[in-house]
Specification:
The structure is a homodimer. Chain A is mainly α. The first copy, chain A, folds into two domains: 91 residues; 331 residues, Neurolysin, domain 3. Chain A has 20 helices and three strands. In chain A, strands 1-3-2 form a three-stranded mixed β-sheet, sandwiched between helices. In chain A, helix 1 packs across helix 3. The radius of gyration of chain A is 23 Å and the shape is globular. In chain A, 45% of the residues are buried. Chains A and B meet through helix 1, helix 2 and strand 1 of A and helix 1, helix 2 and strand 1 of B.
Chain lengths: 497, 497
């Protein structure tokens, strides 16, 4: 191996070691950290993050990368790694070290404020720490630079090339078509899914969730599941990928589809090439593609009739009383009931996009500075009433429901909708590649799906952009028509439209 | 605050942040890490450890410390911190960075080999990785320097000033007196403690252990307990101190006294001054003093009759069948039965010192190079037969029982015996300070003990050496007579000698 490339590899793997040390401290913070440990943990994470940033943005790193950019002895994968690292370097050196530390400190503070605010159901506890984050994110957008809208700079962090212009256009295309479908559904007979809100024992739910993860190929020798306030997936390398879930004993859906959602993310991370540890080709493509993986397993597969044709009898064995008089067809309709509601993570596949758009619109305004954090509750509640026709009862069921802002993740939400659109497009191609896929799923066999994703998505790491990867896997770039067709077909059947 | 002192404080707290990030990765490795995550975790720990070492041994650190050593504006605590850090610096810069990394890599490899070797009950799996560690430890002794014996350099790491000469003398004093006592005990009627080996449900044991920890003032808001292969205590600051235990359903003693032992360590760590985080005065005095804390709670308190006068009725409620016909006096005698055995952590308070001495003798020979790792099983088994009269049946119950060597902890074991001696001396003074202490314990009240330790031990951090601290707290330096008297009195009563 080329000597400079070897030095580059060594350096970037060391930076990755620090990054993942910090990630483990964050995982621990949300799973097992005793309460008094919070304060010092915050500074520990900040220090390790800052040192990693310092190593990454060191001018020597730039020199090494520039030398390699001009080196013509690299093979195509090595070249790609170097090019992507150089792009990251150029972007990262725009952020001063003390800014990165300030952000890390603020995120730590605001995360705890968010936990507290949720506990006390009071947005005002979170408002000031959040305002600090918003001011820092505006500053970050200026540091990073943008052509048209400051929010572009932040969205670009999660999906290269994503802009306000393209996202506005996407929602303008999607939302009206969904509104029409929602109207049609509204005129049909409503589905009774009250059976999902009974008592479901915590431990039984936990075991069922673990079983689902195993069924969809989650490798428990290379990962684990734990409990946290808000479900998430985190990885420390592709051989150690961890998901979390939360269990509500009064709601069967809460844990079940969070397992499948985070499981979908985790399969992607477990499938990334370990021999590229610490280098771009060992990383995921973009958050939109990441979300396509979670939404694919959660919805296209996990809310399909074939999937439950296999799993429902097992479920009935665990909860015999609760599902006594419910047929699998009724269960299937129940878990796909379309109804405007307050909580994004519990929303059906159609109204979900309205939840996302609301957050997108609020973030856009926060970053451009036309609103401030104290405007959030009112504007949030107004949007929910106007777009979904639901009245927000309190902050916990309103603007305090998502962890993202407390983490400083602005520009992230749009990738949820875009991910769903990618998922539908990939799903269409999975069926094209194997016409027996539904039948296989109904026998509990998702091997061919897993293999297809392994080859078409996981194995490529960050080699392609979202658009390139989509084109390679499906023959065309993102086309929302696949999702619209998927939705019309699925809900047309369920609601007899 | 002095500007240079502030810079020193900031730097050392950052180094501590890295050290504790690495500690969290180690804790995770022994509690929750999925098996395939081991390989990369090893390099992650090595990188973070090396960066911390690099920052610590940077000549700029030395310059800063030298400037502060000559600064006459520091108060006495600041001065002490600087002096101790300078001693650490001088010691640490003797170890080259690549040596530290090599050690960290080797430790990671050998720890996993040890786990595997224990599982397969086969020392040969561990032998080669252990040999690598031994060679590195010999090299470390040379780097660190010593006056008389290379093993002095390693023991000095755990208790400043500890030497082969002083430890040889100590054992030469202690062991013959214990042998006499053991002989006398041997001639008495033997105690039946078979009731400890029944079935004790895992979850019930776990809850009882948690309750014991709470009773002895372990703060669960600033710590937690988990399960691991080998019990240990680890801390990431005094507000986050974690203990682990293991549960054997066929043996009640295993978990119970490991909880009290690790709990004693943990109380010390939780009691260290948080405002000195990352600085010497926020650290423990020495491992000997640390062990005095664990042995005090495990033995002087946790194997005393007053302690069980309070806890035994609770225990009988949890395990009514198992303790049905056993009086608290019989229970007390049972848990103090003196019998030569194979496992150090399960040994009684008297034969324990023989276990320690055997390890001390073997380590001494390994470091001076008169034996190698492949000699260990034979020499181990020979010592056990000669000194304790027991035949080692297999490696798992022999030379594979302790984690220490796999961690590279050579020079550690002697502090177990020395810690017990300190414990007896402190215990004598706790009684002098409060003559009602036994009566209080029998009512479940250990507050005055906890307060005494807080004031006399915990609060001082590393301000004093072991000897100084002992003298301050008890009026004299280490005197094994206190342990001998304690042992004669306790076992004289139990065995009617």
């Amino acid at each position: 191996m080329n000597k400079s490339y070897e030095a580059y590899r060594k350096l970037f793997q060391e930076i990755a070691d620090l990054k993942y040390a910090s990630a483990l401290m964050q995982w621990d913070q949300e799973t097992y950290l005793p309460p008094k440990g919070n304060e010092i943990r915050g500074r520990q994470i900040a220090t390790v993050t800052e040192i990693a940033h310092r190593m990454f943005t060191d001018p020597k790193t730039g020199d090494l990368l520039e030398e390699l950019i001009n080196n013509n002895k690299l093979n195509h994968r090595e070249r790609k790694n170097v090019e992507l690292s150089y792009l990251d370097y150029e972007k990262n050196k725009k952020l001063p070290s003390d800014f990165v530390r300030k952000m890390s400190d603020s995120v730590n503070k605001s995360f705890h404020a968010w936990v507290q605010a949720r506990k006390e159901n009071d947005f005002t506890i979170f408002q000031q720490p959040l305002q600090e984050i918003i001011i820092l994110k505006r500053q970050e957008a200026e540091y990073l630079g943008y052509e048209k809208h400051p929010y572009d700079a932040l969205m670009n962090e999660y999906d290269k090339g994503l802009t306000v212009a393209s996202t506005d256009k996407l929602f303008a295309d999607l939302i009206p078509q969904l509104s029409i479908l929602l109207n049609e559904i509204n005129q049909q007979k409503q589905i009774n899914n009250e059976f999902l809100q009974q008592h479901f024992d915590k431990d039984d739910q936990w075991r069922f969730g673990i079983d689902l993860l195993k069924q969809i190929h989650f490798d428990f020798d290379a990962g684990r599941q734990d409990i946290s306030e808000h479900p998430f997936t985190i990885n420390f390398n592709s051989q150690d990928v961890r998901v979390t879930t939360r269990i509500d004993e009064k709601d069967f859906a809460n844990m079940t589809w969070s397992c499948l959602h985070e499981g979908g993310h985790a399969l992607y991370e477990q499938g990334l090439p370990i021999n590229e540890y610490g280098l771009p080709l060992g990383e995921y493509c973009s958050l939109s593609i990441h979300e396509s993986q979670s939404r694919l397993w959660e919805n296209c597969i996990g809310r399909s009739l074939p999937f439950w044709k296999f799993h429902y009898s097992k479920l009935q064995k665990i909860f015999p009383r609760q599902f006594e008089n419910i047929s699998v067809e009724h269960f299937y309709k129940g878990i796909n009931k379309v109804i405007p509601s307050l909580i994004r993570t519990e929303a059906d596949e159609l109204t979900y996009h309205f939840h996302v758009m609301i957050r997108y619109e609020i973030e856009k305004k926060l970053i451009e500075g036309t609103i401030e954090s104290n405007d959030i509750p009112a504007i949030w509640n107004e949007y929910y009433e106007k777009l979904l026709g639901v009245k927000v009862t309190d902050d916990k069921n309103g603007c305090l429901q998502d962890v993202h802002w407390s983490h400083g993740s602005f520009g992230y939400f749009a990738t949820y909708s875009i991910g769903s659109l990618y998922a539908a497009q990939l799903w269409n191609n999975i069926h094209k590649a194997n016409s027996r896929v539904n039948s296989e799923i109904s026998f509990g066999n998702t091997d061919s799906i897993f293999r297809w994703l392994q080859n078409e998505i996981y194995a490529h790491g960050r080699y392609f952009t979202s658009e390139e990867l989509c084109k390679k896997a499906t023959g065309e770039t993102l086309n929302p028509a696949y999702f619209i067709n998927y939705a019309k077909h699925k809900y047309g059947e369920i609601y007899c439209i």
